[in-house]
Amino acid sequence: MSAWISSHLLTFLVFAPLFWGLLLLAFPERLAPLVRLLALLGSTGVFCVALIHLLRATPEYGTLFCERVPWFTIVGLPVDYHLAADGLNLWLVLLTTFLTPLTLLGTWNSPPSRGGAAASIFLMLETGILGALLAQDLLLFYLFWEAMLVPMYFLIGVWGGEDRKYAANKFILFTLAGSLLWLVALLYTASRAGSFAPPLMAAAIQDLPGSVQRLLFLAFALAFAIKVPLFPLHTWLPDAHTEAPTAGSVVLAGVLLKLGSYGFIRFAIPMFPSAFAHYARPLAILAVIAILYGALVAMVQWDIKKLVAYSSVSHMGFVMLGLSSMTVLGTQGAMLQMLNHGISTGALFLMVGMLYDRAHTRMIADFGGVATRMPIFTTFFLIVTLSSIGLPLTNGFVGEFLILNGTYTAGFGWGRVLAAAATLGVLLGAVYMLWMVKRVFWGAANTDEDSGTARLSRDLNGREIAVLVPIVVLIFWMGLQPRTFLAASQEPVARLLEEAKAPAPRMSMMPAPEVKP
Amino acid sequence: MNGARDLAALLPLLIPAAAACLLPIAALDKDQATRKWIRGAMFFTAMLAILGSFLYVTRLWEAGHQPTFAQFRMDRLAQFGAIFLLVAAAMTVMQLWDHLHQEGWVKGETLSLLMTAVCGMMLFASTTHLMLLFLGLELFSIPLYALTATVRLRASALEGAMKYFMTGAVASSCFLMGAVLLYGVTGSLDVGEMGVRLGLLKGLDPLALAGAALLLLGFLFKVSAVPFHQWTPDAYEGAPHPVAAFMSVATKGMTFLALLRVFTAVSGGGEGLLGVKLRTAMALAAVLTMVAGNLTALVQTNVKRMLAYSSISHAGYLLLAFVAATPMAFTGLVFYLVAYLAMNMGAFGLLTAFGLVGERVTFDHLRGLGWKRPGLSLAATLCLLSLAGIPPTAGFFGKYMIFKELVQAGHVGLAVLAVLASLVSVYYYLRVPVALWLEKPKPSLEREAAEQPAVEAPFAGATVLVCGLLTLACGFLQTFLVDGFAARVVRDCIGLVR
Predict the structure, then answer these.
(1) Which residues in chain B touch residue A153, judged by CB atoms under 8 angstroms apart?
(2) Which tens digits make up the pLDDT trace of A182-217?
(3) Which domain holds residue B33?
(4) What residues 106-135 of chain A have any CB closer than 8 A to a CB of chain B?
(5) Is B455 helix (H, G, I), strand (E, B) or coil?
(6) 8 Å CB contact of A168 and B426
(7) Distance of residue A45 Cα from the nearest chain B Cα, in angstroms
(8) Most buried residue among A115, A433, A495, B95 by CB atoms closer than 10 A?
(9) Cβ B390–A183 below 8 Å, yes or no?
(10) How many domains is chain B built from?
(11) pLDDT per residue over B96-113, tens digit each?
(12) Are A220 and A267 in contact (CB under 8 A)?
């Protein structure tokens, strides 16, 4: 078994959760606690396997693991079952496998009904995400990208809040709108290239006229930008977040959104270097608008969860800004910011969930003086808040600093202005988060009988502390020693940008000069 | 010797025909409460006939025999059609057993009519001779008119059947008129021969064009393409659920296979003056069908009407294969039909499996049922996701193949329209899983449902499970289906003409 896992590590990582989830689906409803325990153990197992194998792999960070077999050929297009782990997705894969057991543990009591089915669906979601992260063949990526929507849809739709049907439908329709148009672009490119392998497709794109290239890029960018979500395509996100159960929100913010920005790095930029350079500035401007707009809207929210959701829009704006700067610093910052956002926002959603489970409300006005009732919770919340704001020593600072630095030196001209505007976004981030903390945690305890604070009778228990401690450790680790997390992507990112700037030979994208018959 | 060879071609058709003749004997018993074993024997006979024919055709397929009898060709395309049809018919019979018991309306003629329709459809997809085509068309249409009105005490059944019959009769006469015009111009009733002679003529005779257009109208009516779709929702609503499923799957599938044969024969694969004109007409019909079908489906409250409009919109996607008109697009069409068989049978089967009869087929009636029978509902959900074209189900790969060929043929605009149409469709397909899993039952309807006798629909439930598995399996065994069946069907079909 362990030999099989070593040689098929990626297949194991992707399909073990699905297999486990399907198995658990067969358990009857009354065994829900057992199912949740098994799901937790299973996903912890997957995390351990991922951690051991991925970190033990060769330190020079080329392609760490790769599995490639021809899958099928229909309508003349070969599709490969091609999974690979390399510097670009290594940490995102680890983040996904890390957050899954953590979320299961953190939301142990949350979904009141049908908890077993929720845990199974949650594991299936993990399969979709990991598959999309690891897939190197574009059709395979597309399949995972779409298949991932279904478990998320049901997670929001069945276990969500009041407006869950609306939110779930909006989520799936928005995402599909982007990805279906993207499918047409994908088919167009693939039929030119005769393959779904990105290097071959990139070569075929080079031969197309510039206007067609740009149109195709826009189709790719639309699908990814909806997922990120980039302003003005973000409107599904606050709804989905507010309605989703805590577990759904954590994974949605933690990893699902990253797939959009990851799609840019993995596919859109290397395949459309010139079109990306052409649209870098508009993308950067939209990113800055997202940063400022997200922050301003977050400031006026009444609902803590919605506030965190809008802060996601703002933070993901930073990621997009870093990517569109087309500098090594900015892109590296974006890579780190993806992890940061996954950890801090994931933790924020978890903690909002903990608060909600106790108080049954998320309205800021219902709280006040929570610190007097739950001192341990407040400590954790404050640390994560500071990380989300980007205080030096925490992870948020490093990512945002690199991104702003990269934007400042960006080649498209408006770098300094955009960097200055984005810095304002950092400031606004401090404003909305700290203001919220002030209203919820500080001050005299809200003594009103119906208020949220009055219902807070117990502080965090051991289980919840166990969930939050690793997150806090990571926050400081990433803030103090970001090299651990940046080293892997250093070389791939540098190569990516080099090729994007000088797209002529594209040798390293192509493993071997392939001659088409 | 000669007789044996003739029989070889006709046998798949003769077996259901024999069953069709035998079955009415059971119906001679006028008593509503026909004894149980007679009912069982009837369904058993029907299943036996289907199985016999199925085994025979699969033997033919495996051995590679392609017997012919005059203009009747049991070639790969016809054999594939027969297998497709017989699987659909078997599922229909199984669902009918449950559904007719739920309706309290088990009569002999239903199965007999169904077997006759099976005969007619097989004939329809096995020939290029216009008179035989017309014979096949009528042989399956007339039983279907009657089948629509199976529960003839219900007004909606009569209304649906009447509408279907009236419009169907017009379409059939158009088909006949087209055949006559084409015969007048070319002096041949065989479409292949006709294609050759039309190619020899300078330019395009307007009469030939009118003839071809009328012929096409007959086909488009049967696949319920817009603007010849008006009968569909009413007929489906009035018909018993399994019959509606059979109409949507088998009629559409076999008509598309026949159209594939006729189209490739008359236009040599879509090239030539007539081919281009026909393709333009089909592109127009496809656009109208996708837009009207999907938008109208959005506002339905009745699940069967929604499925009817969904069936209309799928005709639009399938027509796109003829616009692309490449061998691979036709391969995609054949694959799509297999997927469509599984997913649509599953979707209609859901209604039967939950025992929702009569007027009780709105989305509200489905509410909260998912948690009562999770396995069954999961299979049905898979079928609906597949109808919506969400990977990795069969429906996605069907669309993928057709759209890819469409894009490669240069019709990017049409492909964009098609994906937007299927985006719209996601919304209404998801309403079924939403009702099944996400919504709580309405108290009034729950009380009403509690008054109904407990539903046991073992056969219908089994078909839904099979369909769910099939939609998933088709998503992973595309190569097997495409290379093993679809590609060979299309290769032989086009090779026949060239």
Answers:
(1) 430
(2) 999 999 999 888 888 888 888 888 888 888 999 999
(3) 2-497
(4) 114
(5) coil
(6) no
(7) 26
(8) B95
(9) no
(10) 1
(11) 988 888 887 777 788 899
(12) yes
